[in-house]
Amino acid sequence: MLPGPILIIACRKCGAKVRQMSLLSGNTFGAKYWSDGYREAPMLPEYPLITKCPGCKAIYWLDKGKRVGEMDPFSSDPKIPFAEKLSVDDLLSFLKLKKQNKDDETYLRRQLWWELNHSIRKKPGSEFPTTQRTQLMENLERLIPLLNPEDEDQAILKLEALRELGRFEEMDRLRVFVMQEYEWPAEQIFDHAERGDAKVFELEDDSRVFRHRLSVAGVGYYDYAEEKAQKNLRKGDILTLRPEPHNPHDKKAVEVLTPEGKKIGYVPKPQNEKVAELLHSNVELKATIESVYMELPLYDRVGIRIQYGH
Ligand SMILES: [Zn+2]
Q1: Over 92-138, what HEC string results?
Q2: Which terminal CB of the chain, N or C, has fewer other CB atoms within 10 Å?
Q3: Chain region(s) in the chain for CATH 3.30.70.2330
Q4: How far is the CA of 56 from the centre of ligand 1 (A)?
Q5: 58 Cα to the center of ligand 1, angstroms
Q6: Cα four-point dihedral sign 136, 137, 142, 144
């Protein structure tokens, strides 16, 4: 982690100063990710954009404060406190104070969401106190219309917000907006929704999962060409992956078969090279059916999950 310069910002009302940290570079080593998009990354901390003045207690955006100086990141001056992030109460009162523009309100409501979820983060499996639960619900109801599903970062947040509200049936409509890099959290979010769980959870590490959902290619051509047959495929069914080195079109082709040897199709081409390589080097791969969505086109209908190691 490489800290950037520290800006000294003075409150425009009373002149009290705070230090605003910045980061030149960092990494996500040792990071924990949560379903609501919150990240605990020791090497990539997120600094607040808005703070409460330690002098007059006014709440202000740091870029609207007065920049009065800069500090070397490695020096320290205990007289000037760090700009603190806002508490739940501060966020609520600031949101009530005046109408925010869309981006600012989205930022504030996301912060509020994260702050409220911290109690569950600290004690997974615990329940919200009633007031907090009401605050969370109200906040999410207001956040959802602000999130644009066509923005890939916002689509995944919207999906999670709907889940935490228990509006599970509305989640499927967002599936088409989830971009490939967010498929792994999205599948875990859908899994929790299926179980009726509406609380924030820590995302499972993705590193041992090749990809959470790959769509089987060629479903329309083999033993599962007919819808009637596809309906027999069940989530969790174990599959066999078999390299097909003599395939005339692609020597990296990998067949996807049921344990009885019936052919569903192929590992999609963008991923088959990696899978073929792993199979060739005798890495143990576990493939299972992740989902079958009859409403999706054939090329996207049968999703599988491939994991390696144990
Ligand atoms: Zn002040």
Answers
A1: HHHHHHCCCCHHHHHHHHHHHHHHHHHHHHHCCCCCCCHHHHHHHHH
A2: C
A3: 209-308
A4: 4
A5: 6
A6: positive
Q: Which of 8-12, 48-52, 59-63, 295-299 is predicted with the least confidence, judged by mean pLDDT?
A: 295-299
pTM, two decimal places: 0.68
Architecture of the domain delimited by 209-308: 2-Layer Sandwich (3.30)
Structure tokens at 45: 């901390």
Instruction: List Cα–Cα distances, 170 to 51, 77, 188, in angstroms.
Output: 35, 51, 16
Q: State in Å: Cα 59 to ligand 1 middle.
A: 8
CA dihedral 211, 215, 217, 219 (to 10 degrees): 140
* Helices and strands, counts by H and E, the chain: 8, 15
Identify the three-state secondary structure at position 9: strand
At 56-66, the pLDDT tens digits run 999 999 999 99
SS3 188: helix
Residue 10 CA, ligand 1 centroid: distance in Å: 8
